[in-house]
Design goal:
Elements: H1 2-12, H2 26-158, H3 164-176, H4 180-183, E1 192-198, H5 204-217, E2 221-228, E3 235-240, E4 243-248, H6 249-261
Parallel strand pairs: 1-2
Antiparallel strand pairs: 1-3, 3-4
Helix pairs in contact: 1-2
């Protein structure tokens, strides 16, 4: 109010102003300038400063929000990197576990396969042994019948009956006679394993007699193994090292057949 009063006084007493001749009231202009300055100061203190302060606060909040968003992005990126690293680690571990499991399964499969083949071989070997034992047992049961037929044929050929002792000698020679004349030409150096094959299983006494005959003819006799092959019909086939002495009936029949065909 005082400013307006001063302005009116200056306006009323402004007749002596230098701008009066131009129709310009200099005091009124000054008063309006002063009023504008005071109004500007009033508006600055009442409106502009609070607005600027509010804008500054808003700018700070925006900056803080942006900083928070940046930190959140960094945390998210860190979480994603950590997640990816853990995922890669888990994937690698899973692949290793799968490879180890597959390798273990393959090893178990190979072991089972080997065990199965080994068991099959064992069963076949045992079946072969059992079959040979059963065959030898059956052949041993037929020995008396074969001996009787052989003696009957011999009696028929010579037209006379043989006594029991002579029959036993002929039977022993037929089944377990070591081919002495053939062994005499065999050169054996050192202790050598011997395999003796007969048409029928030999008794313990016959095996002992065969070993004794072999010991007389072979200086360093090794282990003697007995085998059975009904196909040789009679006599013995003696294998000493890599040499074979065939004194079987089958060999004699083959030689007779060749001589007849000659």
């Amino acid at each position: 109010m005082e400013i307006l009063a001063i302005t009116r006084v200056m306006a009323e007493g402004g007749g002596g102003d230098a701008f009066g001749g131009l129709g310009i009231n200099s005091f009124l202009i000054i008063a309006q300038i002063v009023n504008f300055i005071f109004l500007l100061l009033f508006l600055n203190g009442l409106i502009i400063k609070p607005i600027l302060k509010g804008l500054e606060n808003r700018r700070k909040r925006i900056d803080e929000s942006l900083e928070s968003a940046r930190k959140a992005d960094e945390r998210l990126a860190n979480v994603e990197r950590d997640y990816q690293a853990r995922l890669n680690e888990a994937t690698a571990e899973a692949q290793k576990l799968r490879a180890d499991t597959l390798q273990g399964a393959q090893a178990d499969l190979e072991r089972i396969r080997k065990d199965a083949f080994a068991e099959a071989d064992r069963i076949k070997a045992q079946a072969h042994i059992d079959a040979i034992a059963a065959r030898n047992q059956m052949l041993a049961g037929l020995r008396s019948q074969v001996s009787a037929l052989a003696m009957a044929a011999a009696n028929k050929i010579i037209g006379d009956s043989l006594d029991a002792q002579r029959q036993q000698v002929l039977i022993n020679e037929f089944f377990a006679k070591v081919p002495a004349t053939l062994l005499s030409g065999v050169d054996v150096a050192g202790s050598t394993a011997v395999t003796v094959t007969s048409a029928l299983p030999l008794s313990d006494g016959e095996q002992a007699a065969v070993k004794a005959d072999l010991a007389k003819q072979v200086s360093q006799l090794g282990d003697v193994t007995f085998d059975v092959d009904p196909g040789i019909l009679g006599g013995l086939v003696v294998r000493i090292g890599d040499k074979v002495v065939d004194g079987s009936v089958l060999s004699k029949l083959n030689a007779l057949r060749q001589s007849l065909n000659a």
